[in-house]
Write the structure tokens for this entry.
Amino acid sequence: MDAPLPSASDFNQLRAFVAVAGSLNFSRAAEKLGVSSSALSQMVRGLEERVGVNLLNRTTRSVSLTEAGAKLLERVKPAVEQLGEALSETREGRAHPAGTVRMHCFRTAAELYLTPMLRAFNNAYPLVVLDVTLDDTVVDIVAEGYDVAIRIGEVIDKDLIAVRLGPNLRQTAVASPEYLARRGAPAHPRDLLTHNCIGWRWPGQKARYKWEFMENGKWFEVAVEGPVVSNEKAFGVQAAVDGLGIAFASEHLINGHISEGRLVPVLEAWSARFPGYYLCYPAQRRMAPALRALIDAIRREGGGGRCPLNLAGPDA
């Protein structure tokens, strides 16, 4: 059976005993610990009462260790010194964050908010190691042992702290000019059922993602079909550029192709905005300094601030 962990009172009593035993002088030991001689004496007497034996011989002129005191000192002095060093290192860590922070991040979010600040963050906090998993799978970050994540607002657990990093997002259906010349443009999202649509699925899931549109203030889904389906949006966008069919992707992935004429947006009137990227992490009373440093750095990069998770936020 594991021994019970010492309480704060236990540690203070042992530290008082080690200090007195080291100098064999209550006044010098009290000065070293920054307490009064009477308080120090009470802590040592409290320890003696707990163990049931005298640990120190006291006279008006001198202090010496009893046999029991000498044996206890031999056992506890290394432990007390190690605990003291550990506490000092922890306090130092608040000023100089160190350690590993485990992060789960959607790929596009990493491009937008993580990659741009990595070098400056490393320069500022060289003792912090970022262990980053780039993956669009929706995982339970607490159960999987992650400290923090960046993902879109609609897949954030309600019990996490969520910090908005950027504007709401929008997905738009796009196709190449050649495809539209050959097949014509859909006039309504339901017309997609007669088109070649390049599918996408959430990583880790087998079913295709149903494309989401808004009509009269309400979201609805279209279960599209087509010759290609993958778990990588950029792959689908390139397939659309190559004329295979219609893809559905966020502005970050398609705006460059649209401006260069490689893709043409369709069904824009039904493409509404939805909650964008959020930094999310479990609520905690005392956050590790390394995690706090990372969160602050990403918030500065994203220009966001802590806010309640509102999945019906205004368009940006």
